[in-house]
Amino acid sequence: MNSNIFLWGDYMEKDYLVVKSNYFIMNSNYDLSLQEQKIILTLASLVRKDDEEFKPYKFKIAEFMELVGVEDKSKYTEIPKITKELMRKILEIHEGNTLLQVAWLNSARYEKGSGMVTLKFSPDLKPYMLQLKEKFTQYQLANILTMRSKYSPRIYEILKCNEFKKQGYIEIEIEELRKLLRTEDMYHQYQDFKRKIIIQTQKELKKLTDISFVFEEIKTGRKVTSLRFYINQNKTKKVIDEVAIVPKEIETHPLQHLELIKQVQAIFEVDITALQAKELLNTAKDDINIIKEKYEISKITSDIKNIVGWMLKAIKEDYKVSKGNVKNDNFNDYPQRKYDFSKLESVLSGEKNIEDVNLYKE
C-alpha cells in the first residue's frame, strides 16, 4: 500500500484531533450540511499540522456510510452522490482585500469492487491546516460526531478558537455571526435565530462537548445587535490537554502545568478561564497554597468587582487578613448575599428576564 495513503478503518479513533488556524475559523464562511461537515472534519482529523502536503486518505465505504448516517448498506451509490455534491460546495476565505473561493476537496476516487473511497483536500487550504506553529485551534473529533444541528460544529469551533480570551468572553455582532453561519437569508426575526440556532447549539455543546457557554444580549436601542459569549470548560466532560496549546495569547506551556491549572479553577466558586488560572499560577510562582490562602481572604473582603484582578493584586502585595476587610452589606450589618449562578445563567441565556428573577440564593 502507498505509504502516503491512510486507511481510516484500520486506525481511526474518535479522539483524533481536528486542527485549523484561528484565522481560518474566524475569516471563512461556508454552507455545509451536518453530513458534509462530518466528512470534512473527519478528514481533517487525519491531517497532521506538521505535514508539508495534504495526503490522500482512504476510507472503507461501509464505515464511511456509518459516519454520514446512511444505514442501508446496499446504498453504496449514495456515497459518490454525497462526495460529488460536497465538491460543488465553495468555501470563502477573506484575506484582507482578497476573497479566496475554493472547493474543500481536490478529488474523490472510487475503486470499483474494492469498497474503498480516497479523498484529498484542496491544496489551497494548506496555509490554514498545515505547518501551523501558532494561533491554531485543535479539538477532539468526538466533540462533533454526535451533533444534530448543522450550526453546532461551526459555533463550537468559533467558541473553541476564543476559549482563552483574556476578558473571558467573545462578543460577535449578529450580522457577522449570520455571515459566518451563512444564515443571512434565514430566521430574519432575532427570536427565531436565537431559538433555532443559539439555544439549540447551547444545549448540544453542554451535553456533548468539552465546553459550554452562556450568552448576553447586547442591544443598540431596543434591538439586539451583538451577542457576548461566556465560554466555560464543561466539567461534565473530559477536558483534553491540547486545548491549552491553541491560541498564542497564552503561549505553549508544559503539559504538567495543566493539572495545576485545573486545580486552581476548582478553588473558585465561579468559573474562571484556563488563561486566568495560569496568570494566577505565574504570579504565585506555581504555589497553589498561596492562591488558596488569598481566595479565603477574598471571601471576607467587601467590594470585590473583579475576583481574578483582586486575587492577582492580593498575591503580589501579599494581602493578610484585616479586621477592617470583613465583608458586610453597605446597607445593613448582615453578610453580603451570594448570587445563584444557575439563575444568573438563565438570564444571560435569554430564557428569563432579569426583572422576573431573584438572582440571590435563598
Description:
By secondary structure, the chain is an alpha+beta fold. Among the domains are: 1-131, Winged helix-like DNA-binding domain superfamily/Winged helix DNA-binding domain (Arc Repressor Mutant, subunit A); 253-327. Helices cover 38% and strands 19% of the residues. The chain has helices at 8-11, 22-26, 34-45, 61-68, 78-88, 126-129, 142-145, 152-161, 174-181, 190-208, 256-267, 274-283, 288-298, 307-316, 341-348, and strands at 6-7, 17-21, 28-29, 57-60, 90-95, 98-103, 105-111, 116-121, 136-140, 169-173, 211-220, 223-233. Helix 12 runs parallel beside helix 14 (307-316). The model is unreliable at 1-12, 239-256 and 325-339 (pLDDT under 50).
* Strand line-up in the sheet with most strands: 1-4-8-7
| CATH level-four homologous superfamily name of the domain at 1-131 | Winged helix-like DNA-binding domain superfamily/Winged helix DNA-binding domain
CATH architecture of the domain at 1-131: Orthogonal Bundle
The largest sheet is: 4 strands, mixed
The H/E string reads EHEHEHEHHEEEEHEHHEHHEEHHHHH
Tally of helical segments:
15
Low-confidence stretches: 1-12, 239-256, 325-339
In helices, the fraction of residues equals: 25-40%
What is the residue-averaged pLDDT? Answer: 80
Please give the structural blueprint:
Blueprint: E1 6-7, H1 8-11, E2 17-21, H2 22-26, E3 28-29, H3 34-45, E4 57-60, H4 61-68, H5 78-88, E5 90-95, E6 98-103, E7 105-111, E8 116-121, H6 126-129, E9 136-140, H7 142-145, H8 152-161, E10 169-173, H9 174-181, H10 190-208, E11 211-220, E12 223-233, H11 256-267, H12 274-283, H13 288-298, H14 307-316, H15 341-348
